[in-house]
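Field log, afternoon session.

UNIT: design team B
ACTIVITY: writing a sequence onto a fixed backbone
BACKBONE:
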């Protein structure tokens, strides 16, 4: 008889094809109309039984993520274990390919991955809705990392409605030096919008229709990120990256979420390769990545 000694879960990154941000709420969060699209860049989380909770990581920039119990993967294991009255004795190994602190939800991916891996390893039998509740407790973006595909996130982003996507979209991502703090970018949004009437966030019908039809040109025309002025204010050098990608033939360019990763929508796979080469040669970013979308959510391998 063989016993399963470890479980590996693969989890995608995201880009926000629309990020409409409302005014700050009394709890400090912002109500959103957050149109998430999962993209084919992945972290993997492997859960193995151990004597105590332990986190290890490999990949680019893992020196910038905590390996103690503040790691979102560790917090996911602890929350699940506490709900089921068991000890979170597990070794979680993170293989990181999603840029760290880049606005692509890498930490959220690791949290969703750890949750699904531990749930499978421990046979807790948690329902999908219990897993989604735990995800929402861990962070606003974590539920989407679990479900993947495309979805509209309301509330602070955690209340998801799946969205239909009618084709494959081709993206190039320019990875910047260093990260941007998500709370700092929301804080800068508040500063820049102070004294103005911030409208209720709404998903744009034209954007939802472009996703559904798989029309890259229509999606390019509808891409919108209300956090982009704040990210550019904190990191003005991103303007040059956006311009370089547009000059290289991207249909559209925007900051991914809170940044500093920038995202470029290309007409097809060939155009994406061309944009990637020219962006890298422009010297306006540290690294480029090409990825298709939509991508599946957290998946046990
Ligand atoms: C901006 C977005 C867009 O998808 O992601 P990133 O681009 O950073 O990955 C998200 O809203 C980030 O979600 P996430 O990173 O899960 O945030 P959380 O851990 O829940 O919150 C971190 C902090 O961000 C701010 N925050 C987050 C979500 C929200 N709707 N309003 C906020 O004001 C708050 O200051 C909060 O304390
Ligand atoms: N497992 C994790 N992976 C990445 N970052 C993590 C993790 N756990 C905690 N963090 C911290 O969360 C912050 C946000 O990182 P990340 O989720 O990669 O970026 P973003 O919120 O911009 O998408 C960073 O300060 C990082 O150190």
């Amino acid at each position: 008889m063989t016993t399963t000694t470890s479980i590996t879960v693969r989890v995608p990154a995201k880009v926000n094809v629309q990020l409409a941000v409302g005014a700050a709420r009394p709890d400090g969060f912002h109500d959103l109309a957050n149109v998430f699209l999962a993209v084919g860049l992945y972290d993997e989380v492997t859960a193995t039984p151990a004597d105590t909770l332990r986190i290890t990581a490999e990949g680019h920039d893992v020196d910038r993520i905590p390996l103690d119990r503040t790691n979102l993967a560790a917090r996911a294991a602890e929350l699940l274990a506490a709900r089921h009255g068991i000890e979170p004795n597990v070794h979680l190994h993170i293989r990181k390919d999603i840029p760290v602190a880049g606005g692509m939800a890498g930490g959220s991916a690791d949290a969703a991955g750890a949750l699904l891996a531990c749930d499978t390893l421990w046979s807790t039998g948690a329902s999908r809705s219990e897993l989604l509740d735990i995800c929402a407790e861990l962070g606003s973006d974590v539920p989407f990392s679990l479900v993947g595909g495309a979805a509209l996130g309301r509330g602070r982003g955690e209340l998801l409605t799946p969205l239909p996507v009618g084709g494959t979209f081709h993206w190039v991502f320019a990875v910047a030096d260093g990260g941007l703090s998500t709370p700092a970018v929301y804080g800068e949004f508040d500063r820049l919008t102070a004294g103005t009437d911030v409208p209720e966030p709404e998903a744009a019908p034209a954007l939802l229709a472009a996703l559904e039809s798989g029309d890259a040109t229509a999606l390019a025309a509808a891409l919108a990120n209300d956090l982009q002025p704040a990210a550019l204010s904190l990191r003005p050098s991103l303007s040059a990256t956006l311009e370089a990608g547009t000059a290289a033939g991207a249909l559209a360019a925007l900051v991914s979420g809170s940044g500093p990763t920038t995202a470029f929508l290309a007409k097809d796979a060939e155009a994406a390769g061309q944009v990637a080469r020219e962006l890298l040669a422009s010297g306006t970013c540290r690294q480029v990545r090409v990825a298709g979308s939509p991508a599946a959510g957290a998946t046990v391998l």
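LOG NOTE: Residues 24 and 238 are 25 Å apart (CA to CA).
NEXT ACTIVITY: expression trials, pending approval
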